[in-house]
Here is the input.
Amino acid sequence: MQQMSDDAKTCYAVLRGKTKEHLFEEEIQKMKLLDVTARVRISMDIHIVAYCVLDNELHLVLLLQDGQSADEFLDNIARSYEENCLEDGGPLRVDYLAAQNQFPDVNSSVSEHGFFYNTGKKISHFRKNTIKELNDKKAAVHYCLKMHMLPVKQGIVEEPQDYWWCSYLDYMGRKWLPVADTEQILSKFSSDPKQAIKLIRQRHMEALLKNSPTL
Here is the structure.
């Protein structure tokens, strides 16, 4: 992905399922959501710099160029997920995995069918999107770290690297789905990729210590 200009609009966005639906409770559902997100991201040429999937929420930090809409992006993800990944939708092909050992064992129902969605169908399983415009890429870094700590704060895992469904592992070098554009944030830490990873890891560990209970 190409480096974006500093005047790109930065925003924090959340796509939520309706209350108590838990659309992404199973691991395969989280995987399908990320695959849909990758496909829509590519088709709309959207830059995602961070993501985190919880049982009923998709959190994103986006860099938007002129004419790009976060609302439209989230609506397309919701529509595509409903029409391809829910009971009344068709099966979804997951074809981005580089190797089987980069994906946890799940009971997968995916198959080799195509990817289609009807843009005229009403979205029924999702609530209104939450979108907050951020001031700059410095704010994007803050929300990136905050997002990666969500599974820790919710008691799902003890450390961010233990959670598969957020972009922290992508920042540590994982290559599996074309979702997160990590270069946009890493370049803010250092021009040396290895040093940038070291520094962003350090920031996460500092955040982890702040959230740890006092002994």
Q: What stands out?
A: The chain is about 35% helix and 15% strand. The chain has one domain: 9-211. The first helix runs from residue 27 to 44. Strands lie at 9-16, 47-53, 57-64, 130-134.
